[in-house]
Specification:
The protein is an alpha/beta fold. Helix content is 40%, strand content 13%. Helix 8 (196-208) links the parallel strand 5 and strand 6.
Length: 403
């Protein structure tokens, strides 16, 4: 008796991926990261200003809390909404920073902000629903919507709008199948926040149309020129997304949270139970230490350090000929226009980024990932690296651009 063993080609032919996968584009920044990594391994000193990850890691007090949890065997599943103590600590943080009284029951601890956005889209986006978001924006946001059968509608936002979605944008682009908006403040890639007036006008426009608003506030702890205003202060029915990755320097720990309206708590709990069971237990135990006075003092010093880097980098880029029409007031990004640079690739951000990597050994990100509104004219710099390295990167770019 002979057995037919299918060839690799036959197996691949039999496995048809879902149609939605074809609408999700690769994350192009990772190609730049990969190339920079290969250059480093070959002995080349590459300065990375590409990845949106703090160069700081979790403070010792947070790492110690994680080790204590592991030693004590506190590693089993938690409630799907998250540790009660952590949700209470997050609620206390809103009271201290924003003077907001948030019921801990409304807080859903998630496996990173990405899991929070997936839960929000699973709860609110139906097949064929359109969701408005600004262009440029974080690329995964539109892919989260697509994953649940929705259609992201990117609305070109200019520097006059702080690259953010306005109330006028909502009014002009709301159509029969529009169901809501997804915005980030501060934003990746621009580092700009919505002003309180802009946020209020946008939320009013969405509310008037019976829509939902998902507000990504993961960079709000890294605000520099003003006291940040949470969307929760303006509308109790918004869903906000936050994270321990950026301000709290816990990127690989995969921990975030949502604040959801009271009537939707059971919906999010059911989804979290089925999709994730719970967020990582050790990370949750560690995160309790984030809200101690010792840890918060460290985080605030790091925030001031990020501001020092921004205050150096933006004028330096402008001096080199990059156009930065809006001073980024949060996160650790600068979204710069290259079209006025006297350089052969100044009208193609991908070619320009590759030329800087090869010629200056500086890794940045071309605009292609972030939308369709003139991405070829824009690049993103991340200043999540030491100031001395940023200064060195500026010197290297100057030599290449002036050659």
């Amino acid at each position: 008796m002979s057995i037919n063993i299918p060839t690799e080609t036959q197996s691949a032919r039999a496995l048809q991926v879902a149609q939605r996968v074809h609408a999700i584009e690769p994350f192009r920044v990772m190609e730049m990261v990969k190339a920079a990594g290969e250059m480093k391994r070959s002995g080349i000193d590459v300065i990375s200003m590409s990845v949106g990850e703090p160069d700081f890691t979790a403070p010792d007090i947070v790492a110690h809390a994680a080790m204590e949890a592991i030693k004590g065997g506190v590693t089993q599943y938690t409630d799907s909404l998250g540790l009660r103590e952590l949700r209470e600590a997050i609620s206390g943080h809103y009271a201290a920073v924003h003077q907001l009284d948030i019921d801990p029951r409304r807080i859903v601890v998630t496996a990173g902000a990405s899991a929070g956005l997936l839960l929000a889209c699973a709860a609110l986006v139906a097949e064929g629903d359109e969701v408005l978001m600004p262009d440029p924006c974080y690329p995964c946001n539109r892919h989260f919507v697509t994953s649940f059968g929705g259609k992201p509608v990117l609305v070109p936002a200019s520097s006059e709008d702080r690259y953010q979605l306005s109330g006028a944008h909502v009014q002009a682009n709301w159509r029969e199948h529009t169901r809501g908006v997804l915005v980030a403040s501060p934003s990746n890639p621009t580092g700009t926040s919505m002003t309180p007036e802009q946020l209020r006008e946008m939320l009013d426009a969405v509310r008037a149309r019976g829509g939902f608003a998902i507000i990504d506030e993961i960079y709000q702890g890294l605000s520099y020129d003003h006291q940040p205003v949470s969307a929760l202060a303006l509308d109790p029915n918004v869903i906000t997304v936050n994270s321990f990755s950026k301000y709290f320097s816990m990127t690989g720990w995969r921990l975030g949270w949502l604040v959801v309206p009271e009537p939707l708590v059971s919906t999010f709990e059911k989804l979290a139970q089925n999709l994730f069971i719970c967020a990582p237990t050790v990370a949750q135990q560690a995160a309790l230490a984030c809200f101690t006075p010792e840890a918060l003092a460290i985080y605030e010093e790091r925030r001031r350090e990020f501001q020092r880097r921004r205050d150096y980098l933006v004028p330096a880029l402008r001096e080199l000929g990059f156009q930065v029409p809006v001073m980024p007031d949060g996160a650790f990004y600068v979204y710069a226009d290259i079209s006025a640079l006297p350089h052969a690739e100044s009208h193609d951000s991908t070619a320009f980024a590759w030329s800087l990597l090869r010629g200056a050994h500086v890794a940045i990100v071309p605009g292609d990932d972030f939308g369709f509104a003139a991405p070829q004219r824009h690049v993103r710099f991340s200043y999540a690296t030491k100031l001395e390295r940023i200064e060195e990167a500026v010197g290297r770019m100057a030599r290449v651009l002036r050659a």
